[in-house]
C-alpha cells in the first residue's frame, strides 16, 4: 500500500504500526493488529506475499550470531549511498549503473569478480558487463564459466550459492581457474498492479553473478542479505536506464525522420503549377514520417509539360530512399521527353542497383500546348481521363519497374480537348479501407469526382482526399496517399 506501516520511537522503545494496509504488516511471521514493540533483529514483512522485508537493527547493540552475521550492518551501510543514488535516478546511463552495481556487490561480498547478464527481447540472457576487484573492467572472454548457473537462476527466479567442488562435473572449466564459490541472484523488477484485486507483478530481467576462491564472506548470510537488497534496487535502476536509453534513441530517430521528411518535401515541386494551356495540382500524404510515393513536374522542350507519379513498394525510410532515386532518374532523362524512354531508363537503373525485393509503379505524362498527351503507365493504377466523351482509363505502357530485365515500355498518345481532366493516384487512395474492411476502390473515385470534375483542380483534389479520409473514418492510414490532377485548358 502507498502508506503501509510506520516505525516510531515511544518512551525509549521502537514500535511498528500498520497504517490500514490492504495485506497487513507482519513481525517475525505474526500479523500486527495495533502496534508491536520491536527488538533488535526482528524481521518486518509488508504484505502476505512477503516480497518486501525489513530487518530492524540497532547499531549500538551487539548482534547475536544466531540472529544475523555481524557484518550485515557494515554491508548495508556500504550499500546505503549506492541505493540512494539508484533511487534518485541520477545514474541514467546503463553502463554506469551496471558498473556501480557490480563494484558494490564485489565489495560487499568479498567476491573476486562478477558479471551481469540481461535478457534480450527474445528472453535470452546476454552478457553485458564484467568487473573484478579494484573496479577493473574484465573482458567477457575471460569468464570461462558454465552458463548453467545463471540460466537456472534466471529461469527459476531463485538465488544460488554453490560450492563448485560439490558438483565438479558441471563446472570443470571454472574450477580449473581456481574459482570455487559462486553466488548468483536474479534481477527482478517488481511492480504493484492495481486492478480489481491488488497483485504483484514480478518480472526477471537478468542475473547478477559473483564468484571467488574464499568462502567466508561470499557464502555468508550477510552477503545473501546484502545482495538481495542490492538486486532489488539494481533491477529497477537497470530497467529505468534501459528505458531512458530507448527513449533517447527513439527521440534521435524521430528527429532524424523529421529532417528526412523536410528533405523529402523539398525534393517535391510546389504542388500547384499553371500555364496558358494547363492547370495542375498535387498532394502527397505519407502514412509514416516519410513515404515511398512521389510526384514531380517537368518543364520540357517545345513548351511541353511533364507530370509524374511514382509508388515504391513498401513504406518508411527504404521506400523513401528508392523514391528519391527514381525521381532523380526522371530528372536526369527528361531531355528525351519521351515517357517510354524514361521508363526504360528507370527500369535499367533499378536492375543495375539490384535493390532486393524493391520495385515501383509509375505514371509519366507529357502534355503539349496542342492538347496531345503522350504517356507511359509502368504497372500503375490506370489514371482517370474525364472528358466530354466520358471516362477513360490510361493503362498503356508496360510492366512494373525494377523486376524484369529487358522489359519494354511504350508511349501512348491521346488527344485532349478543352476542359479534359486527368487524375493520377497511388493505391493508397484506391485501397484505403473503411472500418468494415471495405476498399475505397476505383468506382468510388469515379463517382466522387464525376459530379465536380469541371470545378477548379484544387477543389477536385481536395474533394478526393476528403472522401478518402471520411471513408476510412477511424481506420489508421496504412499506405501513402498521393494524387495529381491536370486540366487541359485548350
Q: How would you characterize this protein structure?
A:
The longest helix is centred in the middle third of the chain and has 47 residues, at 221-267. The protein is elongated. Helices cover 32% and strands 31% of the residues. It has helices at residues 71-88, 94-109, 148-156, 172-175, 221-267, 316-332, 339-353, 427-430, 441-449, 457-472; strands at 5-10, 13-18, 25-27, 30-31, 35-37, 43-46, 52-55, 113-119, 125-132, 136-138, 160-163, 181-194, 198-212, 272-275, 278-285, 293-300, 304-312, 360-367, 372-378, 384-387, 390-393, 397-398, 412-415, 421-425, 481-488. It has 490 residues and is α+β, with helices and mostly antiparallel strands. The strands form five sheets. It has a six-stranded antiparallel sheet with strand order 10-9-8-13-12-11, sandwiched between helices. A six-stranded antiparallel sheet has the order 14-15-25-24-20-21. It is built from ten helices and 25 strands. Strand 20 and strand 21 form a beta hairpin. The termini are far apart.
Amino acid at each position: 500500500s502507498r502508506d503501509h506501516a510506520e516505525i516510531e520511537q515511544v518512551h525509549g522503545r521502537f514500535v511498528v504500526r500498520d497504517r490500514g494496509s490492504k495485506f497487513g504488516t507482519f513481525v517475525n511471521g505474526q500479523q500486527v493488529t495495533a502496534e508491536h514493540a520491536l527488538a533488535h533483529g526482528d524481521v518486518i514483512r509488508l504484505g502476505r506475499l512477503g516480497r518486501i522485508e525489513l530487518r530492524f537493527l540497532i547499531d549500538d547493540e551487539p548482534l547475536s550470531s544466531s540472529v544475523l552475521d555481524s557484518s550485515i550492518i557494515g554491508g548495508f551501510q556500504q550499500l546505503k549511498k549506492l541505493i540512494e543514488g539508484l533511487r534518485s535516478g541520477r545514474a541514467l546511463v546503463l553502463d554506469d549503473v551496471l558498473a556501480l552495481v557490480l563494484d558494490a556487490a564485489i565489495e560487499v561480498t568479498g567476491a573476486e569478480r562478477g558479471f551481469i547478464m540481461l535478457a534480450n527481447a527474445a528472453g535470452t540472457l546476454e552478457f553485458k558487463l564484467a568487473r573484478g576487484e579494484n573496479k577493473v573492467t574484465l573482458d567477457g572472454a575471460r569468464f570461462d564459466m558454465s552458463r548453467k548457473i545463471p540460466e537456472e537462476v534466471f529461469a527459476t527466479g531463485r538465488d544460488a550459492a554453490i560450492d563448485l567442488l560439490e558438483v565438479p562435473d558441471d563446472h570443470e572449466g571454472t574450477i580449473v581457474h581456481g574459482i570455487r564459490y559462486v553466488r548468483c541472484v536474479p534481477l527482478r523488477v517488481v511492480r504493484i498492479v492495481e486492478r480489481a484485486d491488488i497483485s504483484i507483478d514480478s518480472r526477471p530481467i537478468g542475473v547478477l553473478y559473483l564468484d571467488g576462491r574464499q568462502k567466508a564472506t561470499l557464502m555468508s548470510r550477510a552477503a545473501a542479505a546484502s545482495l538481495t537488497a542490492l538486486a532489488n534496487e539494481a533491477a529497477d535502476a537497470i530497467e529505468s536506464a534501459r528505458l531512458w536509453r530507448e527513449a533517447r534513441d527513439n527521440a534521435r530517430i524521430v528527429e532524424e525522420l523529421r529532417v528526412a521528411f523536410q528533405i523529402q518535401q523539398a525534393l517535391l515541386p510546389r504542388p500547384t503549377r499553371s500555364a496558358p494551356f494547363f492547370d495542375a495540382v498535387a498532394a502527397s500524404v505519407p502514412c509514416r514520417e516519410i513515404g515511398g510515393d512521389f510526384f514531380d513536374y517537368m518543364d520540357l522542350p517545345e513548351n511541353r509539360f511533364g507530370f509524374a507519379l511514382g509508388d515504391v513498394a513498401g513504406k518508411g525510410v527504404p521506400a523513401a530512399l528508392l523514391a528519391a532515386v527514381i525521381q532523380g532518374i526522371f530528372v536526369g532523362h527528361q531531355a528525351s521527353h519521351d515517357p517510354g524512354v524514361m521508363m526504360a531508363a528507370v527500369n535499367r537503373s533499378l536492375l543495375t542497383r539490384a535493390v532486393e525485393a524493391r520495385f515501383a509503379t509509375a505514371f509519366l505524362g507529357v502534355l503539349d500546348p496542342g492538347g496531345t498527351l503522350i504517356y507511359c503507365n509502368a504497372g500503375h493504377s490506370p489514371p482517370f481521363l474525364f472528358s466530354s466523351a466520358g471516362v477513360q482509363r490510361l493503362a498503356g505502357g508496360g510492366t512494373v519497374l525494377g523486376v524484369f530485365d529487358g522489359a519494354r515500355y511504350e508511349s501512348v498518345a491521346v488527344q485532349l480537348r478543352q476542359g479534359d481532366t486527368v487524375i493520377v493516384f497511388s493505391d493508397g487512395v484506391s485501397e484505403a479501407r473503411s472500418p468494415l474492411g471495405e476498399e475505397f476502390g476505383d468506382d468510388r473515385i469515379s463517382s466522387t469526382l464525376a459530379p465536380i470534375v469541371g470545378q477548379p483542380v484544387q477543389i477536385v483534389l481536395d474533394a478526393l482526399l476528403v472522401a478518402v479520409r471520411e471513408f476510412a473514418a477511424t481506420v489508421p492510414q496504412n499506405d501513402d496517399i498521393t494524387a495529381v490532377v491536370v486540366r487541359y485548358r485548350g
